[in-house]
Amino acid sequence: SIEILPxxxxxxxxxxxxxxxxxxxxxxxxxxxxxxxKAYIAAxxxxxxxxxxxLQSAPSPQQCNLLDRLTRVVLLANPxxxxxxxxxxxxxxxxxxxxxxxxxxxxxxxxxxxxxxxSILWHxxxxxxxxxxxxxxxxxxxxxxxxxxxxxxxxxxxCASTACHLYPRNYHAWVHRRFCVKALLASPQSExxxxxxxxxxxxxxxxxxxxxxxxxxxxMNYAINFEKILSSGKPTExxxxxxxxAASLLRSYPDHESLWMYLR
Length: 264
Description:
Structural class: mainly alpha
Protein name: Protein prenylyltransferase
């Protein structure tokens, strides 16, 4: 995971620390905010200069490596930087970056609160899922691929769940979860009982989330759409209709408008 630490380096990292000016503990990276902003200014200048050079001719391996490093800094400080994301897509297409490694980087970025809410990072992740599982990127970006295996989609539920914890009412993370449900149902393996279990677990996880986040209408909307998917198949063990769920919550929290919308 990655976290942006508020303020200066002092108080977070001692100069004698090997990773100074960064905090690195048990695989978790902490980046002091002021260090990141200084690095961002330098990275953006170097990135556009290098990008202009690479547009004139095919970039060398050294240029690709530098573009990779610079765009990582740019996206951590400014996750809505579409041009940097497009550069990374080209690096993946040119095989300068392994798409599975890029998917791991995406997971790390989305573990950062400032990045978890950005729609284009989620769109980039769906693009990567298509690439890593052999789906042509020329197809409609909103189409649901059939080639993504259920275990990969289970990892996507976990990534989106982390983002929902980091950023309340995270609409874009819930949209990503809906994409994953549809992809799971489109999979040729969707009839296997263990894969039905993945769906059931995600549905129950969603209802439990709503019970502790009673103002998150994005989650409620997701649950309602999810229920339509589940109710169209065989009865599911442990299944609780959203109408009953909403009514039970309203008995405890009658003043919350989002719950009345959920019931309607």
